[in-house]
Amino acid sequence: MAMARAGSSPQKSWLYGWHAVLAAWANPARICHRLLLGLDSGKEFQERAVAPVGKPRPKPEYAERARFEKILGKNAVFQNIALEVTELEVLALPDLVRMMQVRPRATFIMLDQVTDPQNVGAIMRSAAALGADAMILQNRHAPEAAGALAKAASGAVELLPICEVVNLSRALAELAEHDCLALALTETAPPIHTIDIPTKTCLVLGAEGDGLRPSVRAACALAASLPTRPDFGTLNVANAAAIGLYECQRRAHGI
Amino acid sequence: MAMARAGSSPQKSWLYGWHAVLAAWANPARICHRLLLGLDSGKEFQERAVAPVGKPRPKPEYAERARFEKILGKNAVFQNIALEVTELEVLALPDLVRMMQVRPRATFIMLDQVTDPQNVGAIMRSAAALGADAMILQNRHAPEAAGALAKAASGAVELLPICEVVNLSRALAELAEHDCLALALTETAPPIHTIDIPTKTCLVLGAEGDGLRPSVRAACALAASLPTRPDFGTLNVANAAAIGLYECQRRAHGI
Question: Which ipTM score applies to this complex?
């Protein structure tokens, strides 16, 4: 829990992995502090890693595996590159309301108790690629948008705003007041291709196994399932999110 | 590479993780040899793990973490349960041809040099859930359908047949002779929702970054992209596969 909070001073964190670092590097809003490169990384790799992007850059430090592991932890697949950054600002619900006022369509994705960084990162990547406008998380469950999450997101943390809220059900109620309807993805609902998806939608997914909490499910005006076989009905949450986001994207464009 | 080959005697391998083991246990075609349960797993867990399923079952052995790690490797997330099984039979291309002769529709998914067990397992899970008929892999690149792959597949290795072929392009040519058209998912093609998907289709995906090899791409009669934003166009391969499989499923049922 080291995301920048409205009103608090922004925290630093580490990004690693080629795509995550290069995307942060290219993001004008990202303040970069330290760049670590593997001692054994090739010359071409090093040149690409420090290519100018129009903002001051930290002088690269060359590090051995042990130093990477000390900073990033033993299990980080860091790909010979890591970047210490100031965390991006997290949005609040009024920011999403303002967003909807100026955009003809909006797709948000809300995760209820999905906390695995790999899954959250993979969902951010799909959401950014498929044109979603923001991801909504409950602030006390939100994983840090760095490390393994940012690596799985493959650069998407630079593109997709994260909005943190205190209470998911209340956030959905407030979005509904601005004509943004919540669409729950659950196993017990009509298939998603059979329902009307409004132009302003918040797709809501729960954790595998547990699904959505009843209070969150109750705050969703719509619910849909994916057309899975009856004896094997559950997808990985990131794959389910990808399909839901695709379907929102396809319908939003009337196709 | 320990899958059963046509003509060779079947190999044994280890499955682990709750869903993978329980699905194997319930599969009448699976021969089970040894069942390992964590010493610390609770009584309810142990009772569910050995509940009768109408076939002889191995007597459970209770093991410490160190014994699991010795058998499964240090990085296995084994969830206090592992099962040694005989590997399932792998299909050959004529089996898929026979399958198409008796089914009005068929969806196959072919992976070209996608070798990460997590991704292959996740794709098997989506393919099984979304009603695909088989997965086609090149035999010398096929990861073992056990361990981390089977865990990510969450039971799907018991449901989705794997077909191994020597040459992917030749396999696609042979499928085309039986009216099964290959549909490549690539970044440079019309969006998938704008193309006709035949009732017998083999969806073809390549590895992230490298994409499809030219010879495999050339063997595909159709190609489609996903509707991603121009400046951030790539999805994780398992998420792309999920969307492709969903779209095949949706269209196959005329919806």
Answer: 0.92
